[in-house]
Amino acid sequence: MYQSLYRKYRPKTIDDVVGQKIAVRIIKNSLNNKKINHAYLFSGPRGTGKTTMAKILAKSVNCLNPINGVACEHCRNCIEINSNESVDIIEIDAASNNGVDEVREIRNSVSLSCSSLKYKIYIIDEVHMLTIGAFNALLKTLEEPPEHIIFILATTDIQKVPSTILSRCQCINFESISVVDIKNRLKFIADEEKINIDDDVLLKISEISNGGLRDAIGNLEKLIAASSEKEIHMNDFNNTFGFVDSIVLERFFTSLVNGNLNEILAISTELYDTGKDYILFTNELIEYVRQKIRQYYNSSNGFCEYCNLIFELNDLCNRLKNTDNIKALFEAGIICLVDKENLGNDTVSKSNSIKTEVSKTSDVIDKKEEHLEENQSSSEEENQSLDDQRKKINLKNNEIIMNNTFALANKNDLIQLKQEWEKLNDYLLDKNFGAIACYLVDGHIRACGKNNLILSYEYDSMVDRGIEMYDSLVHVLKQILGENYSISLLTDEKWEQEKIHYINNIKNNIKYEIKELEKQEINESNEISSQDEEVQEASLLFGNDIIEVK
Ligand SMILES: [Zn+2]
Questions:
Q1: Are 284 and 249 in contact (CB under 8 A)?
Q2: How far apart are CA 62 and CA 479, in angstroms?
Q3: Which residues contact 435 (CB under 8 A, 6 or more apart)?
Q4: Distance, CA 451 to ligand 1 centroid (Å)?
Q5: What's the DSSP call for residue 500?
Q6: For the segment 185-213, what is each residue's pLDDT rounded down to a tens digit?
Q7: Ligand 1 center to 25 CA (angstroms)
Q8: Separation of 73 CA from ligand 1 center, angstroms?
Q9: Signed CA dihedral, 25, 29, 31, 35: sign only
Q10: What is the pLDDT of residues 451-486, one digit of tens each?
Q11: What is the pTM of this model?
């Protein structure tokens, strides 16, 4: 018979309970000292182990051979309770049995003796759901409980439990379980189930479960059921729970702070077409901004601007809950927000003026081409091939810079650069340099030698982005650190390989020789951009693709 993971891995002994150090200590002490109460009230958020603890307590007080108060798991009573067959353990879900009749029935059965165990245990879950009448009936029982009866009441809402009940119970609070504790438990379960699951996926499940282990295990189970393989990665998680890739969040955030409405609307359409939940996305965005603020707490520059963003996004989120046309409301909300917060105001007007400039200049090119009969290619195709060429050179230079960094690498330069790098933190929220500065501080500085440096990133897509906007990286570093740097970008994984390769070369006395960088060939479009400072500045902000407006 199929058993849910939650049931399968439900702790059977008090030492297996996840988190809840205080609750565990209180119960262990009372078991150890044989000071058993006749009524307990366990309160705390859902899925934090209240009913699990109730069952462990029920077993411990009934065990025939307890060791320091802990159930032996082997005696007749332990076996009977573990098999869920004992008639002396009565579980009542007050959420579905909130009537006086049920409690009256309890009162009548309370007087009957146990059928096989030492104690008859009543576990009443969600006790706050009982009606006033039922509470009063329960109160009468709690006032004069027979020796062989123990009540364990559980609630997620202690405020709704009358004080007359509370005063007759030993109240024990169950806390939300920490993300670390949940993650460790999920890891244990995944290992037991022989499922290979990425660490960041386990972390993400733990985070979305709001301190509830039951929900976390339920989510893990859902993910396992949805994945065909015994390997589970972040994209499986995103697909199963409707989350978006972190790259999309970053793209959206950057577009938001730059006031890049075209990109914002493009992402919105992507979300819509892939059936993503806008409310979930907005919440993810809030979390993303929160992390940005936390990460860069030291930077006071523009700090409140981003706090405001959280308030605005939260308002938007609430509004999205009450609409039938969520896409329209989401987009309108974001556009208003960009407007209201004046996000990317300078750059928007700049990019508009650039668009006009670029179309003017491409007109000029077109006219020139009309005179050049042998030139058959349209300016569009030419731009495309220039772009490809630029990419190719950037990729080649990326390799050369890595080589040169290895050739010149030394520890002092690395230490100094890492100190200098701190300055970037002051610009993370800067309207002009923020996006690039964020990108740079997200990287890991691996090596440095005389203004050559190697920067690594977790994902391929981050590396590709950096190579694409290479000129902007150099420009922003020059502006902030006052030096011209040559940067080589690669993934963390590739770095580990390159490092080993480098160490081997050093051991074998193979020297690195400094190589010349490939130059971008001077062509018309470069001439134009260097003539027009605004165009250049915009290309630094957006990367070149935005400027090529057709
Ligand atoms: Zn036992």
A1: yes
A2: 73
A3: 254, 257, 258, 541
A4: 70
A5: H
A6: 999 999 999 999 999 999 999 998 888 99
A7: 20
A8: 5
A9: negative
A10: 999 999 887 778 888 888 898 899 999 999 999 999
A11: 0.57
